[in-house]
Design goal:
Layout (H helix, E strand, L loop, with lengths): L1 E5 L2 H18 L4 E4 L6 H14 L7 E4 L1 E3 L10 H8 L11 E2 L8 H14 L5 E4 L21 E4 L2 H7 L12 E4 L2 H5 L4 E5 L5 H9 L17 E6 H4 L5 H16 L1
Parallel strand pairs: 1-10, 2-3, 2-6, 3-5, 6-9, 9-10
Antiparallel strand pairs: 4-8, 7-8
Helix pairs in contact: 1-2
The structure holds 2-amino-2-deoxy-6-O-phosphono-alpha-D-glucopyranose.
Length: 260
């Protein structure tokens, strides 16, 4: 795993945007895997700026989101579709028929999840997948003990996740208890993963993910097996990494190699 430690949230977001934008410029019809949560908001702001000021073109890009709350309609203010629309889609020139967020209202969830997987396949697979990390180490909504080979499916959220995400709802009872999420296996098939984390709250789980054993108890830890995973962290989220200095050294050395 490549580990990039940035000074702060802003620098983390800009670095992530630089990598996503590079993919979009090199492959204008690329397939982006997107995430919600507070972590990628800065990345989406920066991509919006690049679109508005530098003409970064999303007209041929297709997107697949990781997850959606079960039972929430796309126009529900706490749905992940709504989040994506408000934070990114409405600000850039992506045709809405090119965006895919799991549908939280489907009746036949099993068939729908198989269909979502099929759509990703038909699109040629995901070129770059943006990931945040939950306090318990989940990616998407793959809670602890999710199979590391799992596919898109319905997951029951842990009490902790419901509590963590209740800050976006009026009251905790309003937080859905289930979500449709890409599986760990689905995420592992993407060509590149960008794991973002900021703030002291994530320091412990980041250390477990990057330097701990690979375990279904911290589903993000399986990213150690991904052939092209870049973790972009701010100083606070990186604080508990034992090899922090080495990661910074690697980045400096790589930079030297590329400029020489
Ligand atoms: C939710 C999402 C995850 C996200 C996590 C962390 O559980 N399903 O994709 O990574 O929240 O959220 P935040 O970025 O707000 O810390």
């Amino acid at each position: 795993m490549r580990v990039i430690i940035t000074n702060d949230y802003d620098a983390m977001s800009k670095k992530a945007a630089e990598i996503v934008a590079k993919t979009v410029m090199e492959k204008p019809d690329c397939v982006l895997g997107l995430a919600t949560g507070s972590t990628p908001i800065g990345l989406y702001k920066e991509l919006t700026r690049m679109h508005k000021e530098q003409g970064l073109d999303f007209s041929k890009v297709r997107t697949f989101n990781l997850d959606e709350y079960h039972g929430l309609a796309p126009d529900h203010p706490q749905s992940y579709y709504y989040f994506m629309y408000e934070n990114l889609f409405k600000h850039i020139n992506i045709p809405l028929q090119n965006v895919n967020v799991p549908n939280g209202l489907v009746k036949d969830v099993k068939a729908y999840c198989a269909h979502y997987e099929e759509m990703i396949k038909q699109a040629g697979g995901i070129d770059i997948q943006v990931l945040g990390i939950g306090g318990d180490g989940h990616i998407g909504f793959n809670e602890p003990s999710s199979s590391l080979g799992s596919r898109t499916r319905l997951k029951t959220l842990t009490e902790q996740t419901v509590k963590d995400n209740s800050r976006f709802f009026k009251k905790i009872e309003d937080v859905p208890k289930f979500a449709i999420t890409m599986g760990v296996g689905t995420i592992m098939e993407t060509r590149k993963c960008l794991l973002l984390a900021n703030g002291a709250k994530k320091a412990k789980v980041v250390a477990q993910t990057v330097e701990g054993p690979i375990t279904a108890q911290v589903t993000a830890s399986v990213l150690q097996l991904h052939p092209d995973c870049v973790a972009i962290l701010d100083q606070e989220a990186a604080a508990k990494l034992e090899r922090k200095d080495y990661y910074a050294y690697v980045e400096r050395m790589t930079h030297q190699l590329t400029v020489e």
